[in-house]
Amino acid sequence: MLIFLNSSFVPEGDAKVSIFDRGFLYGDGVFETLRAYRGIIFHCNDHIDRLFQSANAIYITLPFTKEYFKEALYRTLQENNLRDAYLRLSVTRGESEPGLDIEGCSHPTVIIIPKAFSGYPEDRYAHGIKAAVVNTRRIPPSVLDPKIKSLNFLNNIMAKIETKDIAASEGIMLNIEGYVAEGTVSNVFIVKDGVIKTPSLSVGILNGVTRSIVIDLARGNNTLVIEQPFYPDELYTADECFITSTIAEVLPVTSIDNKQIGNGQPGEISKQLLKSFRLLTSISI
Ligand code: PLP
Q: Is pLDDT above 80 for 258?
C-alpha cells in the first residue's frame, strides 16, 4: 500500500514519522475517516469541511487548501488502484521539543492511509448487532469538545475496551449528566411509535456526516426526527435502534445490555433508511 505522507507517496513500510511528532507525543492532531464507493469518495467535501473545523478549533493551520486535500485523497485511491476503500486522513501539529507549548509548530504532518474496504458482512445488517451502555462517560464539551475529531481518542478507546469485555459490538456512551451521547465510533438513533429520536448536538457528540444524511433522508420520507437529550431507559423501550457512521452506514441494533429491542429483529424504519442510504452511495458524486 502507498501512503500519502506530506505530499509524497511512500510504501507503507517506509512511511515513518518523527518520535518528536506531537501526534505521537500527545495525540495532538485531528483526523477523518472517509469511504470510497466505486472510486467516488462519499461526501468528501463534508469530511474535509469537518477536518478544517476540527483543526481550527485546536489552532492548527492546515498546510493545504480544501481542493488539495480532496485531490490528495483521490490520488491516494488511484496510486493504490482502489475503488471501494476506507481512507484515514490524519493531520498532526507536527514536530516539537517535548513540552506543551505550540509555539513554532508550523509544519503539520499530513498522512492518508488507504485500505480496501467494501463494507461489513451483510449478516450484521440482516440480524442487527448487540450494543451495551458502557460506564465510561463521553468527555464533556467543557473539557474537550467531542465535535472536534481529535487524534486524542483515549476516551473512546476506554469505552471500546469495556464494550469488548461485555462481548458487545458497539458501546453506547452517556454524557456526564447521564443522557445518551454516542457510540464509541458512531451516532445513536432510536425509533418509538414511528418517530425517530437522536441525541442533539448539545449533548456533546460528534456531528456525524452520516447522522446528518440520515436525518435528511428520514425527514425527506416524512418521518418525524427529534434531536433532543434522552436517558438510556428510552433505549430499552424503543421499537428500533440503529447506529450510523461512515464505515457502518445505517446499522440496526437489536439488543442493548442483553435486552431485546423491539421484536429482536431490525425494524422497518431502520431497514428503509439503510436502503435509502445505500441508494445514495450508489449514485453519489
Ligand atoms: N461519533 C464518533 C465518536 C465517531 O468516532 C464517529 C465516526 O468515526 C461517528 C460518531 C460517526 O461519524 P461519521 O458519520 O461522520 O462517520
A: yes
